[in-house]
Amino acid sequence: GAMWTPRLLRGGPLVRRGSVRASSNEAVIREKVHPTIKGRRRFYKQVAVQALDGSGATKYEVQLDGRSLRTPGRRAMHFDSQELAMAVALEWDAQAPEGIEPATMPLMSLMSTWLDQTSQDRPTVITGALKFLPTDTCCFFNEEAPATRNLVRRQEKHFFKLLDWLADDWGVELSTTNGITKVKHEDEAVRRVEAMLDALDDAALTAVQCATMEGKSVVLALALVLRRVTPKAAEEIARLEEEFQMEQWGLVEGGHDLDRAASKVQFASTSAFLRLLDGEDGHEHRVHALRQACEKLAN
């Protein structure tokens, strides 16, 4: 089959090495997904994408010095999308000789999580995402006080848009709070969110999990994966409170700036992952599957 080898991107790697610090939950997943390679010296010279011979639609794999790339769980990593295979190959190609840094390989992370975790145990992934609902970022408003008035206005502007979208388009009526206790959502609303997650294909469910952990919000994750918000908007919404605090107190070098960079990478790569995987057709198919699931619940 045809072989493709990346030329180094003119701008260097997509993410500057060492510029990303994983948030705690993300780190836990990553330690599971990448225990084998973190900090290892780069053990390969050539990265290539190879078309696999076989009947039916062409599949692709990434090769490191001619050896097939596998998941950390040793599963075969075959791509239906040549574009996604190339993007993962570029992540490997951008690694420095002195050490591999999984935090700069978000697409590899998503592929591995998809094949090693989501495909093996969907119920656990769905339960994990649903656990964020009682503390969902988009359901928590700060208490109205002179010091936080501007923050509360921003939260109302952004959170209500997403909550209204879920209610109007998907029939999910979530509750909100301005206290610090967990939110008690109606059982029907939780059931509907569960039905939406259940109707997602494994790749999209993986994307939702990643975005949920980054934004501490299932609402925001669904909005990103269903293209209601852009990655840039998702980052802004997830970080409303942090950015507000920084306006008041200033930016802590080596802290806030790295969190901001990590957030940007996670939301952008989650979105890119699905676009590279199956583009417009995949998106339409996904929305259709979710509509059917919600209609079933209504009947």
Automatic annotation (TrEMBL):
Q: Which InterPro entries match?
A: ATP12_ATP_synth-F1-assembly, ATP12_ATP_synth-F1-assembly_N, ATP12_ortho_dom_sf
Tell me the Gene3D superfamilies matching this sequence: ATP12 ATPase, ATP12-like
Gene Ontology, cellular component aspect: mitochondrion
Fetch the SUPFAM superfamilies from UniProt. ATP12-like
Would the keyword Chaperone turn up in this protein's UniProt record? yes
| Cellular compartment(s) | Mitochondrion
Record's keyword terms, sorted: Chaperone, Mitochondrion, Transit peptide
Indicate yes or no for the key word Mitochondrion.
yes
UniProt GO BP = mitochondrial proton-transporting ATP synthase complex assembly
Of which family is this protein a member? Belongs to the ATP12 family.
Listed PANTHER family: ATP SYNTHASE MITOCHONDRIAL F1 COMPLEX ASSEMBLY FACTOR 2, ATP SYNTHASE MITOCHONDRIAL F1 COMPLEX ASSEMBLY FACTOR 2/ATP12 PROTEIN, MITOCHONDRIAL PRECURSOR
According to UniProt, the name of this protein is ATP synthase mitochondrial F1 complex assembly factor 2
The organism's lineage? Answer: Eukaryota, Sar, Stramenopiles, Ochrophyta, Dictyochophyceae
